[in-house]
Amino acid sequence: MNNVETIIQYIKELFNVANKLGKITNRPFPLDGHPLGSIGEVYAEIYYGVELYKPGHKIHDGRWNGKEVQIKATQRNDTTYVKGETELLLVLQIMADGTFNEIYNG
Q1: What's the pTM value of the predicted model, to 2 decimals?
Q2: For residue range 53-91, what is the model confidence (pLDDT) as tens digits?
Q3: Distance from CA of residue 106 to its chain's centroid?
Q4: Exposed / middle / buried, residue 38 (Cβ in 10 Å: 0-12, 13-18, 19+)
Q5: CA–CA separation, 51 and 91 (whole Å)
Q6: Residues 6 or more apart from 37 whose CB is under 8 A from it?
Q7: Are strands 62-64 and 67-74 parallel, antiparallel or unpaired?
Q8: Residue 85: CA count within 13 A, CB half-sphere
Q9: Residue 61 confidence (pLDDT)
Q10: Which residue, 54, 37, 27, is CA-closest to 90?
Q11: What is the pLDDT of residues 45-54, one digit of tens each?
């Protein structure tokens, strides 16, 4: 992917909109689920070189160095679940400023 800066800017905007919606409605608007999962997958491709499978692939999200990879993304810094046995698991905490922390890689 050659539009990394543009991608990060749009992710910042997503978090900003979710925050604004929460303020005006007094309801939480977390990006957990598909939006955050897709962000994690794109970051895995950009920063780790994961070859992503088509969306909806069962259990694994991609391949890295010949191994099946399951990618998880969260806004929190705690537990996550896995879809089944996997050779590699990558868990990323996505921050509102578009950056991420690697929670687990193994």
Answers
A1: 0.81
A2: 998 888 899 999 999 999 999 887 766 666 677 889 999
A3: 16
A4: middle
A5: 16
A6: 71, 72, 73
A7: antiparallel
A8: 0
A9: 93
A10: 37
A11: 999 999 999 9
Q: Are 57 and 44 in contact (CB under 8 A)?
A: no
Q: What are 54's two structure tokens?
A: 């088509």
Please give the structure tokens belonging to residue 90.
């990558």
CB 73 within 8 A of CB 40: yes
More confident residue, 103 or 25: 103
- As a whole number, the mean pLDDT across the chain is 88
| Tokens matching residue 27 | 């309801």
Separation between Cα atoms, residue 86 and residue 33, nearest integer Å: 20
Alpha helix positions (H), the chain: 4-25, 34-48
